[in-house]
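user: At home tonight, take the chain set out below, taking as long as you need, and be ready to discuss the fold:
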Amino acid sequence: MSKFPSVRALDQLLDDLGAGAARRRQLDMVRGELNRALERDALPVGARRSLRRLLEEEALGPYVRLAESGTLRHRRVEGGLPPTSEATNEIRRRCVDLLREALGMPALRLGGGEIPLQPAPEAGTLSALARQLDQYLAGAMSPAQTRLTALLAVELDTAGRSGELAVLRTNDLGKDNAAVYIERHPQGGGAVEGEWIETSALTRAALGRWLDVRKDLVQRAHGTTRLWVSLWMNHDGVLDDDGHTTIRPAGMPLEENGLVTSYRVGRLRYDGLRQLLPLKLEQLRRAVDADRQRTAT
């Protein structure tokens, strides 16, 4: 907990905002930088006590300049504190405006410009991807390819964000995998909305193949209801006092980072996917979402 009342009030605001997982990580970055800026006495004294004063231009101007210089990084990069990237700078500005708007303050748009969205696949590419996945299902697949095929099929039906897909559980699937329940978490915050989405024949078949693989994995790990699970033994990444970490067996819940990594690796590993999948899962999501909206009109 921060020693500054303004940052403690910011923590409460972040909890109430209900932002999606990706946006929350970005907001937490800004929160940490603001706290470090206050610890350096780099902001006006009033910003220590009042959240509104912390989010006024008098405090945010110096904060943004200091943060962009790299001085407020929470860890060193190759022994130094280099300036943050333009993409990070733009994320920071967006988060600042989001926080101000949550308090009823107008957006500042402190310098910089919008980072253009990476291009999303066309509708024809989505159809070609579905055909490629169907070809995979017609033959033998490794566990990793089976999981990725099911994940991509679900994405083509739902246009789910990575965080929304990662938290899916087996009880979010309808009878015979004919539907999937997904909770929408708006990136900028707002009410969470859930919906049942009818699945395609491709998705039903892909989920059936994956659930057979998943069953054996989960039994070894003593059970979980999470839909996506790990395929290999790994560790939790937390070191104890002796420098050791807890070993996790295969079949443990796959977190969002692991899900995104499986997408990136699979895009390069399996024949046909590099030409059909964009670099990032989010680009695929936007393409599917746009296609769904076109179909609905």
Observations:
- The first strand starts at residue 179 and ends at 184.
